[in-house]
Design brief:
This protein is an all-alpha fold. It folds into three domains: 3-137, no CATH class; 172-233, no CATH class; 267-373, Serine Threonine Protein Phosphatase 5, Tetratricopeptide repeat. Helices cover 65% and strands 0% of the residues. The protein is built from 18 helices and no strands. Helix 3 (42-54) crosses helix 4, helix 7 runs antiparallel to helix 8 and helix 14 (289-299) runs antiparallel to helix 15.
């Protein structure tokens, strides 16, 4: 199987048992000569962007995101021109956008269909098919913004989110991203807080069932309180907002969590929790990420402040590509030494590539800790 087939076949969140693990795929890709110099369709560059982003390879992810967006640029410009020409009219929802067989329904081939419709003066249908051709592009644009945020390029991140909103009217996630960025960037600017609240309200009204909705509500409440107080810095500090629970994971309120923490402790229970963490780390090193996460979930209600547990749970979520992974990772990296130590244990258990990926992500997430990781990466 070629590196390109690997990239296309990979599904980070719902991979079949026979699919390669992210580590296996990265190893193959890293060993492919001249990979970044090859011409690639949008879908390949987008897949590589998601893969490298999920593994904490920020620079590589940025490179492939730029490549993907450069490839998509003609389609973006065509879509904008057709929308302008359509004016106040609605796109044609009945338009047939399927390319002639045996062509795949990828960006390039679906764009050809849209261009043919435009040439035939069927603008409403052309707009529909151009948007279909661009179906995977907003996600990459948002990832590009997130990557810029991670590298402290806040103006660049804002420009990415702004472009998504300028070009598309059906991507509410961009409102969430921009609102969160605004709150982070200008917490004491009254007009900025008003803008953040507006973005978060728009997101919540358009995507109330999103996995990000719970966090968006918490951000919105914080922004509103800051607005009334004259600035977020004037508010009492609070713990990081709880991430949205994974499907099937019960939501625990503060009273329940307190009950767990105040439960009578025993040497036997402590030994059991320690064994669950150790077994989970062993599963992590062997690539059995869901098994590891299931074990960590059993311990979390009783030891929510255990840095070792937080580090291991965060890494399992990252490896599974769960929506809550970034939030839990941010909490875990408040104790970077614990995350660093997890890398040591993974390496000792034979997961050298996983350890290096963890250290790279840690260095990018906590730049002040990066010098301590130079010899490990």
């Amino acid at each position: 199987m070629s590196a390109w087939s690997f990239a296309l076949a990979l599904s980070l969140t719902q991979a079949p048992p026979s699919a390669p693990t992210p580590e296996e795929l990265l190893k193959k890709l890293d060993g492919t000569p001249g990979l970044q110099d090859r011409a690639r369709p949008f879908e390949i560059s987008a897949s590589l962007t998601r893969l490298y982003f999920s593994q904490g390879r920020t620079k590589d992810a940025q490179s492939y995101a730029r490549d993907a967006l450069a490839t998509a640029r003609p389609a973006l410009d065509f879509y904008a021109a057709q929308k302008k020409q359509l004016g106040a009219q609605k796109p044609d929802p009945t338009a047939v956008c399927t390319p002639d067989k045996p062509k795949d329904e990828n960006l390039a081939n679906t764009l050809e269909v849209a261009q043919a419709l435009a040439k035939a003066k069927k603008t409403a249908a052309a707009v529909t098919c151009a948007r279909k051709a661009l179906s995977g592009v907003p996600e990459v644009m948002l990832l590009d913004g997130n990557l810029k945020f991670l590298t402290k390029d806040l103006p660049g991140a804002r420009a990415s989110y702004d472009e998504v909103l300028a070009r598309f009217d059906d991507v509410p996630e961009a409102h969430y991203a921009r609102g969160a960025l605004t709150l982070d960037e200008k917490p004491d600017d009254v007009k900025a807080l008003e803008a953040a609240i507006s973005d978060l309200d728009t997101f919540l009204s358009r995507a109330p069932q999103s996995a990000k909705a719970r966090h968006a509500k918490a951000l919105r409440e914080r922004a509103d309180a800051g607005l009334k107080a004259g600035g977020v810095s004037k508010l009492a500090p609070v713990a990081a907002a709880e991430p949205a629970p994974a499907p099937g994971m019960p939501v625990l309120d503060q009273a329940t969590i307190a009950a767990f923490q105040n439960a009578p402790k025993s040497a036997e229970a402590d030994a059991r929790y320690a064994k669950l963490i150790e077994d989970g780390e062993e599963a992590l090193a062997k690539g059995r990420y869901q098994e590891a996460l299931d074990g960590f979930k059993q311990v979390m209600p009783y030891q929510p402040d255990n840095p070792r547990l937080r580090a291991a749970m965060a890494w399992s979520l990252v490896k599974l590509g769960k929506p809550m992974a970034d939030n839990v990772w941010r909490v875990a990296t408040q104790t970077p030494e614990a995350v660093d130590a997890l890398g040591d244990r993974l390496k000792e258990k034979g997961d050298v590539d996983g350890a290096k990926a963890l250290w790279r992500r840690l260095a990018e997430s906590v730049p002040q800790y990066a010098p301590k990781l130079e010899a490990k990466r």
